[in-house]
From TrEMBL:
Stored SMART domains: RRM
Subcellular location: Cytoplasm
Region called Disordered, residue ranges: 95-115, 144-201
Physiological role: RNA-binding component of the eukaryotic translation initiation factor 3 (eIF-3) complex, which is involved in protein synthesis of a specialized repertoire of mRNAs and, together with other initiation factors, stimulates binding of mRNA and methionyl-tRNAi to the 40S ribosome. The eIF-3 complex specifically targets and initiates translation of a subset of mRNAs involved in cell proliferation. This subunit can bind 18S rRNA.
Gene3D superfamilies: 3.30.70.330
One family name in Pfam for this protein: eIF3g
Domain RRM: 201-279
Biological process per Gene Ontology, one example term: formation of cytoplasmic translation initiation complex
Record's protein name: Eukaryotic translation initiation factor 3 subunit G
Provenance organism: Lentinula edodes
InterPro entries: eIF3_g, eIF3g_N, eIF3G_RRM, Nucleotide-bd_a/b_plait_sf, RBD_domain_sf, RRM_dom
Amino acid sequence: MSIPKTSWADDVDELVSGQQEDDNIRTVIEYSVNEQGKKVKITRKIKRTLQKSVVEHQVAERQKWEKFGAERGNARGPDRATTTVGENVYLTLSAGNKSAESEQQEEKKPVKSTTGGKVVCRLCKGDHFTAKCPYRDTLGGLENAGDTGAGPDDDTVPPPDAASGAGPTGSKYIPPSLRAGARGTGETMRGPGGGNRDDLPTLRVTNISEDTQENDLRDLFGHFGRVARVYVGRDRDTGAGKGFAFVSFEDRAVAQKAMEKVNGKGYDNLILSVQWSQPRADPK
DNA sequence: GATGAGCGG
């Protein structure tokens, strides 16, 4: 009763010779024809993660039935040459460790829904992100101690039981860097003025060659003083330079000096132009 | 001649 095979896909479920068949891994081989008309072999290894043979009782009973019709007299149960036994295969299609359910919920809610789609500043409850709060300098320190550097905060170390996790009130764990009185990255990441990088003295350098790199400019301007940041304007897609760059210094006087010295200077057979930068246009 | 990216409850 061998039924003639009708397609490549019928060649499924045979063991690759010389391959160990693990009880919990089934190897399924398929052949199909791709867009270029070529035969492709697809080998799939299906791992059984469930308990073996989770089958309804009635279904299991059917395996004992005598065969009838054209199959009369053949061995009981499915003939693996012609029949693929369905298994309980659970596919969990998800990205980022999210369950499918939570992913759906996420799609439903609008992207920026914190307070009904409105952004609310944590400091002043204004209509902007906390980072752009106009009162950030004065209020920021209250929310996150150590923000302004050597502030007058006391050096109180949290009591041991507070550090060990949930207290009697069920408070959340707070990493050491965020505990009151914590010193560390927050301080070292900021310049001496306590300001952030948006108000560093910055020069706009134009007429640079398109293959000028950040490091080239660092070298060029580093002689005058500490360079805080270098940005080279590039084409988004190609990455090629667009002929201008921004160089930020720690010290405004240094920036001033650098501007005077480098402006009009030849570099890479071009004449550099150095001006104070304008603050970045901020989209309102 | 030329004016940046990124982060986020």
